[in-house]
Design brief:
By secondary structure, the chain is mainly alpha-helical. It folds into 3 domains: 110 residues, Up-down Bundle (Four Helix Bundle (Hemerythrin (Met), subunit A)); 58 residues; 85 residues, Winged helix-like DNA-binding domain superfamily/Winged helix DNA-binding domain (Arc Repressor Mutant, subunit A). 68% of the residues lie in helices and 0% in strands. Helix 1 packs across helix 4 and helix 2 packs antiparallel against helix 3.
């Protein structure tokens, strides 16, 4: 079924191209007349004649982008969309030929389609990267033809200067174009059942690490509760409000609550922390014991 569909698509594309190339071009006067009729009177017959007469622009542009591995029929469809956009925005009173104006829209529509569909990884997200993507092959072929050898560092530097991009962008785009999308479910070799996804490292904590972490956190909570219980009530209140809440209470607010100045609250907080540290140090002289005590 897929073969039949592909064959049919190729036949449709070939028919479109033959029809486009055989349709005669318009004179300037006829072109202006049709454009005015469409713009002022919304005459659809005028629009259809105008678009059909310049469908060869779409066919010619599609041939320039045939090496990107995308279906010719899709490129032709996108080009036709660009042609319609050009017809909708064309201003005949400016005296510019429609073919000159429409070329930009057709090329832009096809380039946007290629950038969206050439790879599942988005390519050419800026105007500089877009220019690099569509000009790298041409410039590389020209430089390699002149030197008679594969592109080297000097050649990449020439491309960077001509397109006004950093050399590292040229190198990155060169590698990006040379690579192809590959499914992680694809087999590694001709034999065996291993897939590429089997080689992906699992960066998540192991079950043992998760259990150990939960165990350690439970111990630390008990140690903290025991140490806090040894503090006077006022200092416990300060530690809980200042250090054990998502939104710490200000020194000034605590001072009003406890009837002391905020500087006194700061002193009590420092003293409470020193007592907590002394309590832990007394119970666990060796820091490693913190992780082993039951």
């Amino acid at each position: 079924m897929g073969y039949v569909d592909n064959q049919t698509a190729r036949q449709v594309s070939a028919t479109f191209i033959r029809s486009a190339m055989s349709t005669p071009l318009l004179t300037r006067e006829r072109e202006q007349e049709l454009a005015i009729r469409w713009r002022e009177d919304e005459d659809e017959d005028a629009l259809h004649e105008l678009v059909r007469s310049y469908a060869r622009l779409v066919a010619g542009m599609a041939s320039r982008f045939r090496n990107y591995g995308l279906p010719a029929g899709d490129l032709l469809q996108e080009g036709n969309v660009g042609l319609l956009q050009a017809a909708a925005r064309f201003e005949p009173e400016r005296g510019v030929r429609f073919s000159t104006y429409a070329t930009w829209w057709v090329r832009s529509a096809m380039q946007d389609y290629i950038l969206r569909n050439w790879s599942i990884v988005r390519t050419g997200t800026t105007s500089a990267q877009k220019s690099l993507f569509f000009n790298l092959r041409r410039l590389r072929a020209r430089i390699e033809g002149q030197s008679g050898s594969p592109l080297d560092g000097e050649g990449r530097e020439r491309i960077a200067r001509e397109l006004r991009v950093p050399r590292r962008d040229v190198e990155a785009m060169e590698m990006r174009i040379a690579a192809i999308d590959q499914s992680l479910n694809a087999p590694i070799g001709d034999e065996g059942d291993d897939n590429w996804q089997d080689l992906l490292p699992d960066t998540r904590p192991s079950p043992e690490a998760v259990v150990t972490g939960l165990h350690d956190r439970a111990h630390r909570r008990r140690w903290l509760r025991s140490a806090l219980a040894s503090l006077p009530d006022r200092e416990q209140r300060i530690v809980r409000c200042r250090l054990l809440t998502e939104e710490p209470v200000t020194l000034e607010a605590l001072g009003r609550e406890l009837g002391v100045s905020k500087e006194r609250v700061r002193q009590l907080e420092r003293r409470a922390l020193n007592r907590l540290k002394a309590s832990v140090d007394e119970r666990f002289p060796v820091p490693a014991d913190l992780l082993t005590e039951d």
